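Table S2 (text version). Query chain:
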Amino acid sequence: MTEMKSSLTSNLRHLTPARLRLEAGGGAAKLSSVLDFQACHANARDAIRTPVDWRGVTEALGDAAAIQVHSRAETRDIYIRRPDLGRRLRDEDAALLPEGPFDIAIVVADGLSAHAINDTGGALVASLLQAFADLSVAPVVLAEQGRVGLGDEIGAHLGAALVLILVGERPGLSVTNSIGAYLTRNPRVGTPDSARNCVSNIHGKGGLSIADATHKINWLVRHARKLGVTGVGLKDLSDTVPLLGD
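Corresponding structure-token output:
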């Protein structure tokens, strides 16, 4: 029976990076487990507090034009305490954005994980720009202290029919470098989350690869353009329904 329980525990742990404690006897955790937990917790805190290497992200974009802006959350502490300020563009930065119209705008925001943007942000944008080669794409906007809703105001200023914001997702103890991509049609300040499509868990450690994420996002963009809708009216069927051409 003991061997069977040990085998079950081992098999379950192969299915998830989450911490499982299935020993019937309980008791104190192993020192190695405690130290690993503390290290992972520190890494998650670092992901939130570490600034993004915006120069590195810009270099990964190659020749693509990029504009750097800032939300109304002037510091990281304010950003954490006031989510509403992270959703609005700093007044003076609106003048940096060209007037469209554009088919789509791509915004990269630090969100809650600098690790995510530093590790994958630039390469993901470069892959998406190739997929959107036939579309009118606004200059890439790099947004510091930004949350998902910030893309709405930026997209509206740019006159973009669609806005795609890539944001560092809230880190956990297993994954600290995951990107979430949010697609919104006709972006405006105050757009509800029900009007967006999300492709999440984009990272290189067992998550969605850049190639797979690009395919899903491109599928959503093409179908959003055809159907004239994002959010609850647009279901992600990218695994079964072919990509649409314009």
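Notes on Table S2: The mean pLDDT is 89. Helices lie at 2-15, 31-49, 54-60, 76-81, 83-86, 114-131, 150-158, 210-227.
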